[in-house]
Design brief:
signal, Porin, 25 strands, mainly beta, Outer membrane protein, 16-stranded antiparallel barrel, globular
Length: about 425
């Protein structure tokens, strides 16, 4: 942590020097100090030691039949404190230039309290069109997201990821066309953990998109008016689960690929102190976007162990309503349904693939002043677990519930 602090100070010192030396550049520094205190009535699927909350874990009976996951937990963190700088630069031909670099202290994987890049990109703006290159929000996250205190921002109902990308936007009157090629960095796809056929163990790894040599693609259209944003988009991802197979004690080079096509629609309406926002996604293997899903094994070569796959389809929808300014309150509701695969499978790789349905209902209240936000949020989440069928649908379900309380204080500068 001390080393990270000195690196951060050095970066700010260098930036301050650049402000004095670089002509035609403008710099705006900003940030926040954020504290989060949370409590859960049950163990959950989560990251960042519970700060990024997903859904309650299934029943895990011990030798006496007692549920080991039926236990409360909670903690207090400042990991989502942030620092950032917005840069405006000189003209590049006819294009206005700008850039953003933003960091927090979330770390990576299970290592916390380390500096992590949130956003790092440059942008060329020709007025009606713009080209962004670097890391920022995934297009599926887009410009419509819930206004809630929980740091998951609505995941797994809302796709959540910041990713390296090349994004082009074209604006014509009230319409905005977005086209993007997207790679993976901090948020990764799920794939096989080893090459031993018959063991469906999973991991998140950079190699799946790297070996596929194909970025994700997104194409979307938005309609914008004062107070209204509505649009839809299509997303395609294609990854390589394995390049070699260990089968019957021998190693074989294999050529495997799983491709998924997803679609989303979103809307946001604001009027004075009122906000209404919603998004619905029909996802196919969107595990890199902090959602439930994956893919199933449809066949295995009898000699080499090479496998073929089909995506598991998941429908997820959320609705968010907020009202107020100084005192602001609202609700969030989410519904997710596992729709299974189009073909029969012998095994499934992914996250939450034994969940049939997921429901969330939350309410929050915040006190807002210039530079300050202090608030509390309560969330109820129910997960229906069961056994998946030949087509990866889930049956014979039982309900597991969690109650979550979050208290947040935020100072922005």
């Amino acid at each position: 942590m001390k080393k990270s602090f000195f690196i951060m100070c050095a970066m700010m010192t260098v930036s301050a020097g650049m402000m004095a030396q670089k002509k035609d550049f403008g710099y705006k520094f900003y940030g926040q100090v954020r504290t989060d205190l949370f409590y859960n009535s049950r163990s959950n699927s989560e990251t960042v030691d519970g700060l990024f909350y997903m859904y309650p874990k299934d029943v895990a009976p011990d030798a006496d039949g007692k549920d080991m996951n039926a236990k409360p937990d909670g903690n207090f963190y400042t990991l989502y404190t942030r620092l950032g700088v917005d840069v405006t630069g000189p003209m590049f031909g006819k294009a206005k230039t700008s850039a953003k670099v933003e960091i927090d202290f979330r770390g990576s994987g299970t290592t916390y309290s380390l500096i992590r890049i949130r956003h790092a990109y440059f942008n060329l703006d020709w007025g009606k069109s713009a080209l962004l290159v670097g890391q920022t929000w995934h297009p599926l996250y887009g410009d419509v997201s819930p206004d809630i205190l929980n740091l998951n921002m609505g995941a797994p109902y809302q796709p959540f990821s910041r990713a390296p990308q090349v994004r082009y936007r074209l604006t014509e009157k009230h319409f905005v066309l977005t086209a993007a090629a997207v790679w993976q960095s901090q948020y990764l796809s799920v794939g096989p953990k080893n090459d031993t056929t018959g063991v469906v163990a999973t991991q998140k790894n950079q190699s799946f998109i790297k070996n596929g040599c194909t970025p994700e693609f997104y194409l979307g259209m938005d309609y914008k008016r004062p107070g209204l944003l509505a649009g839809a988009g299509v997303h395609v991802s294609s990854i390589t689960p394995r390049t070699q197979s260990v089968y019957n004690g021998k190693t074989y080079k294999v050529s495997e690929r799983i491709t998924g096509v997803s679609a989303e629609a979103h809307v946001k309406y604001t009027h004075q102190r009122f906000l209404l926002a919603a998004k619905s996604v029909l996802g196919s293997n969107l595990t890199q976007a902090s959602t439930i899903g994956g893919y199933g094994i449809t066949s295995t070569d009898a000699r080499t162990g090479e496998q073929e796959y089909t995506p598991v389809r998941v429908s997820h929808t959320w609705l968010n309503m907020m009202y107020g300014s100084t005192f602001r309150g609202g609700i969030f509701a989410g519904y997710l349904k596992n729709l299974g695969a189009s073909k029969e499978v012998t095994g499934v790789l992914g996250t939450g693939t034994d969940i049939d349905q997921l429901n969330t209902l939350g309410a929050e209240f915040t006190y807002n002043r210039p530079n300050w936000k202090i608030g509390a949020e309560y969330t109820w989440t129910g997960a229906w677990y069961g056994d998946y069928t030949a087509k990866a649908r889930v049956t014979d379900t039982h309900l597991v519930k969690n109650n979550r309380i979050v208290l947040t204080a935020l100072f922005q500068f």
